[in-house]
Design goal:
Layout lengths: L1 H28 L12 E2 L10 H10 L15 E5 L10 H9 L3 E4 L9 H19 L3 E6 L1 H12 L4 E7 L7 E2 L1 H18 L15 H5 L10 E5 L18 E4 L11 H16 L8
Parallel strand pairs: 1-6, 2-3, 2-4, 4-5, 5-7, 7-8
């Protein structure tokens, strides 16, 4: 039995090494985005084993003084809306929401159902929550989106600028869907289901950045320069090419060491977000389109 265990361990280590080699070769040989948005889907040979580290990253967050609110910029009670990633609901964002509430924000997770539907439909749901929250609080809403949730909040901000105080994305491929083949396969399956359910109500290239819907068209240009924006990325992203999640020319960008999933459990990201929200809240109303 021992030799079998050793054999399995050796095969596992070899598999991880192969993933790392393929990922490094991909980044060395493949250029990043050259336009603001690439509409075509692309294959990114990332190392998906990094995502297995997410539970460890969650434990590290729990042990961090940042998670207790130590040494971070305090909130001012402003509303914050968290939007979850593709093929998920929002449960995994609960630690993030708890932390935001602890440091002084009115934080909630967007109730948009499974993030596995037409981009226009999901963006409409985000926008409806933003409008309702602004009506209830009288304040603009800070939007934070993880993965494809970041794409949705950028579309919502582009379409409904007046209700948005700031935009923060974590591992959001808003410049192009350069994804690992496994995720591309999942997206294709969801796209087929969307077409089967919604028929001619959706465009042929639904769930891509080449779709002709209002929300995707709104993503084709940078957001207004007076809207505070922050993009957090990681070179260790296991599902998407991290280079498509930032545009330093238009968006403040911070790079951290984390997996794609672990971005929402990263203390360095949390500290940067606290600072970003505090600065955005203090920005003059005229500069925010009031």
């Amino acid at each position: 039995m021992k030799w079998k265990a050793r054999g399995l361990a050796t095969l596992g280590a070899l598999g991880l090494a192969v993933q790392e080699y393929v990922a490094r070769r991909y980044y060395r040989s493949t250029p990043g985005p050259v336009r603001f948005v690439h509409e075509d889907e692309r294959t990114a040979w990332t190392a998906p084993w990094h995502e297995l580290l997410a539970p460890v990253e969650w434990l590290r967050l729990r042990a961090s003084p940042v998670y207790r609110g130590t040494g971070v910029s305090p909130g001012d009670g402003a509303p914050v809306l968290l939007v979850h990633g593709f093929l998920t609901r929002g449960a995994y964002l609960r630690p993030f929401r708890s932390w935001l509430r602890r440091i002084g924000y009115r934080a909630d997770i967007a109730d948009i159902g499974w993030n596995a539907d037409c981009t226009d439909v999901l963006t409409d749901r985000v926008m409806a929550i933003v409008r309702r929250t602004r009506d209830e609080t009288g304040a603009r809403v800070h939007l934070i989106g993880h993965s494809f949730g970041g794409v949705l909040i950028r579309a919502a901000a582009a379409r409904g600028r007046d209700g948005v105080a700031s935009v923060t994305t974590l591992g959001a491929p808003f410049r192009g869907l350069a994804l690992h083949p496994g995720l591309r396969l999942g997206a294709a399956a969801v796209r087929a289901k969307i077409h089967a359910r919604r028929g001619e109500a959706v465009h042929g290239r639904c769930l891509t950045l080449g779709c002709e819907c209002v929300s995707v068209r709104a993503l084709q240009a940078p957001l207004p320069a007076d809207l505070p924006q922050l993009a957090i990325v990681t070179r260790h992203d296991g599902v998407a090419d991290w280079r498509y999640g930032a545009d330093p020319a238009t968006t403040a960008t911070i790079e951290v060491t984390a997996s794609h999933t672990g971005l929402v459990f990263n203390p360095v990201a949390y500290r940067a977000i606290a600072t970003h929200l505090a600065v955005a809240s203090r920005a003059p109303m005229q500069a925010r389109g009031a």
